[in-house]
Specification:
heterodimer; A: 265 residues; 13 helices; 0% strand; B: 541 residues; mainly alpha; 17 helices
Chain lengths: 265, 541
């Protein structure tokens, strides 16, 4: 037996062992790289080599497959927020921000008078305040009152304002009511509709960079923002995540989420 | 002749200890995400548990069984002491140290990345170093198995290598080559990030490399089970192996076609071309061949035993089989689970059908039915069969063994069938909790509760198994005689060179791996801008 040559075309085991897989590979390659790509109903190949490259997974640029990229019809947010943005503001920035914030206080301070359609900014993360100011200035977010204020701000003003508001302690909400239970949309979201829990970005479970905290904000303001996201009137969410979420929420869920966060101290 | 009993016992006991702990974690996971648990679990703890359960069950438990059983086979089948005893102990030590090194950061929540690693998530470097130590320890075993077979062949020119040893080395060859994928992924891509040397990672390339390991690892787990089918079962039920050559061909087919098929785990991944997915789908279908050959050969071997015991007619031999024998029961259960699991596997490997069950609980059900069911029940049977020879004491608590095997079988069916069902309903896998109050999910509540109950049966069965083995250490001393493997109906006097060694088949395994994986890996390496920032798990919280 030791005289038997295994690696030889005269050995039937060698012929079958190498031949059968080889035939299988070649047949699969023909079917997988030529027959199947061409049997796609929308196959548009310039030739057999194009079809083979497609099946092999050679990346194709969007221009090759879909033509020029489509420009959005509205201005979108261009703000990039690394997690460490504005992490360490100096006290001079806070001081300058405090001066600038005097013109904001009538609508956004904790002692604002009867303003249920504006957010309270004291204690908000700096990146959230900064991003919204940038978006108002660029036109990615629009508001008849807010936009004219933001247009006048320069980069340093926006950093200073963000530093000031994040430096201020968070004030308790005015509609606090411990009896309001957390609705499912806040604690769990709705997995079947691809809605993550509000609390997984806006607290209290987890805070994500760029997400404002919502506790103690006005129920009316929160509901109005959700409706604006759902209708597309507000479109400055990077990656369209809030629009996707809001579009799938029911009107009742928007009201529940708003009422719950407003009721938090 | 089994001279190094302590070596084998050490492997088996460490394996079953790890298995017992991981089994408890598994049942806890089943319970906390079922509607039986009113409070949603802390998801961090849940995923920690999933990571520990998966890593222990996938890397440590079956590896130790294959190693321990492999050392026993070497001494018994080749009838000479193991060459490289000290190396074997060193391998064992590496696996043990690696298991502890990997599990510590997992327990501390520093490596909640699941056993499949999932880059760009990156955990504590100790987790990956531990896994590498386990793999390196098992590679020592791979080398020892090859060395022992080669040495025996030199001393016995022209004689056929005993089937048990031949199959054992098949498993070693397969593991040696398939572990390369995950090892390269961990050492080249993940560890530099975990150690802080790099901040980005190519997740697509990592997934391709992991798929290299991910499928053939299942056949490595399967090897001890198939070795028991061929070389223990016919003898244990008083019969003969129907065909020695068929056994060799089945194990060779596993070596050749288990490897170039892992991309069927990546059907939904964008970084591999559709052509390669189709190619590997075809090769995955080929893996059914050795299993079908085995089912035929083992059923024929059982028929020999049934007829030797006086069974007549086309089906009378089935009734004549020794159903009181735990090995008979285990193999029957194993085949039933292999049948259902295999049928489900045909759906997973089909490029088109996979889309309907991809990443659902169906997949979890499938691999538990195959691994924890068909494979692990044979690990139990192997331990029962070997134990008197390892301890020198009797192990004759047949009733307890049968109750244990029945519980495992029924428990596994009750666990996995509802899993398959909820998977078809669309329940995603790897979720810490489900909102059963949701009208769309509510119909799945009963099935998930049933699964958790099945898991409880598995825990009871696992406890019984350990109890039987411990009682085996305390029973009366006996002389179990020499351990024998099954004899073939026609014992081979000589076999063709192709069926007596692995040169050709390992070359084919490597060649097919290059054909089926070469381009996707090369493309992933060559493409610029595919690395993404790593997500460090468990830091800065």
């Amino acid at each position: 037996m030791s005289s038997e040559r295994l690696f030889s075309w005269r050995n039937p085991w060698f012929v079958a062992g190498v031949g059968a897989p080889a035939v299988l590979v070649v047949a699969s390659l023909i079917v997988g790289f030529a027959v199947l790509p061409y049997s796609e109903p929308n196959a548009r190949f310039s030739g057999i080599w194009d079809a083979i490259c497609s099946a092999a997974g050679v990346p194709r640029t969007p221009q090759q497959t879909q033509g020029a990229p489509v420009a959005p019809g509205v201005a979108t947010s261009k703000v990039v927020l690394p997690a460490e943005s504005l992490a360490s503001a100096d006290s001079r920035a806070v001081g300058r921000g405090a001066t600038l914030a005097m013109q904001c206080a009538i609508c956004h301070g904790s002692n604002r008078q009867g303003q249920v359609d504006t957010p309270n900014l004291e204690g908000q993360p700096a990146v959230s305040v900064y991003k919204e100011l940038r978006d108002f200035k660029s036109g990615a977010r629009t508001n008849a009152v807010m936009s004219p204020f933001a247009v006048k701000l320069d980069e340093q003003d926006m950093v200073d304002l963000a530093s000031y508001y994040s430096y201020m302690p968070r004030q308790p909400g005015t509609q606090a009511d411990a009896a309001v239970a957390a609705p499912a949309i806040v604690t769990r979201g709705a997995a079947m509709r691809n809605i993550p829990a509000c609390s997984s970005c806006h607290g209290p479970v987890e805070f994500k960079a760029g997400s404002p905290w919502l506790e103690g904000q006005s129920a009316l303001y929160l509901k109005a923002q959700l409706e604006a996201f759902a209708s597309g009137a507000r479109h400055n969410d990077i990656g369209e995540q809030m629009r996707n979420i809001a579009r799938r929420m029911t009107t009742a869920e928007m009201a529940e989420a708003g009422a719950y966060y407003a009721s938090r101290p | 002749m089994l001279t190094d009993k302590r070596l084998v016992l050490a492997h088996f006991w460490l394996a079953f200890a790890v298995f017992g702990l991981a089994l408890l974690l598994g049942e806890w996971q089943m319970f906390v995400r079922s509607p039986l648990n009113p409070w949603p679990p802390n998801s961090e703890l849940y995923y920690r548990s999933v990571t520990a359960h998966g890593s222990a069950m996938a890397y440590v438990f079956p590896t130790l069984i294959a190693m321990g059983f492999g050392y026993a086979i070497t001494e018994i089948a080749l009838q000479r002491p193991l060459i490289g005893r000290r190396w074997a102990w060193a391998g064992f030590a590496l696996v043990a140290v690696g298991a502890v090194t990997a599990m510590l950061p997992v327990s501390l929540g520093r490596a909640t990345v699941l056993y499949t690693f999932y880059p760009p998530m990156v955990g504590s470097p100790f987790f990956y170093i531990g896994v590498v130590l386990v793999v390196v320890g098992s590679w020592i075993w791979v080398a020892l198995m090859a060395i022992n077979m080669a040495s025996w062949k030199r001393a016995n020119p022209g004689k056929p290598v005993p089937l048990a040893m031949f199959a054992n080395v098949a498993g070693a060859c397969l593991w040696g080559w398939t572990a390369v994928g995950a090892a390269v992924e961990v050492i080249v891509l993940i560890l530099p990030v975990a150690l802080g040397l790099r901040s980005t990672i190519d997740a697509g390339l990592s997934r391709i490399l992991f798929s290299w390991t991910l499928h053939a690892i299942v056949y490595f787990w399967l090897m001890p089970t198939y070795i028991a089918y061929y070389t223990i079962f016919p003898r244990a039920i008083g019969g003969r192996l129907y065909s020695d050559a068929m056994g060799r061909i089945a194990f060779i087919l596993f070596v050749v076609v288990s490897m170039p098929i892992g991309v069927h785990h990546l059907f939904a991944d964008p970084q591999v071309g559709a052509g390669f997915k189709f190619l590997q789908s075809v090769f995955t279908a080929m893996v059914a061949l050795p299993t079908l050959l085995t089912v035929f050969t083992i059923c024929a071997s059982a028929e020999i035993a049934g007829r030797l015991r006086g069974g007549k007619g086309p089906f009378g031999w089935i009734a004549a089989l020794p159903w009181h024998n735990p090995m008979m029961l285990a193999v029957a259960f194993s085949f039933v689970m292999l049948g259902f699991g295999g049928a489900g596997g045909l759906i997973n490997m089909s490029y088109q059908l996979d889309a309907s069950i991809h990443n659902t609980q169906w997949i979890t059900g499938h691999f538990h039915l195959i691994f924890a069911g068909a494979i692990v029940i044979m690990y139990f049977a192997i331990a029962y069969d070997l134990w008197p020879h390892l301890t020198g004491r009797r192990l004759d608590d047949g009733r307890l063994m049968k109750v244990q095997l029945w519980l495992w079988f029924v428990g596994m069916i009750v666990t996995t069938f509802p899993w398959h069902y909820v998977g078809i309903l669309g329940m995603p896998r790897r979720m810490a909790s489900y909102d059963y109050a949701n009208a769309a999910i509510a119909p799945q509540a009963l099935s998930v509760s049933l699964s958790a109950f099945g898991g409880l049966m598995l825990v009871v069965s696992g406890c019984l198994f350990v109890a039987v083995l411990i009682r085996g250490h305390c029973a009366a001393r006996i002389d179990p005689g020499a351990y024998r493997f099954s004899e073939a109906a026609h014992p081979p006097a000589r076999v063709p060179a192709a069926l007596n060694g692995f040169g050709l088949w390992v070359a084919l395994m490597v060649g097919l791996s290059v054909v089926n994986y070469g381009y996707p890996i090369a493309q992933a390496i060559a493409l610029e801008g595919t690395a993404v920032p790593a997500v460090h798990v468990g830091s800065g919280r």
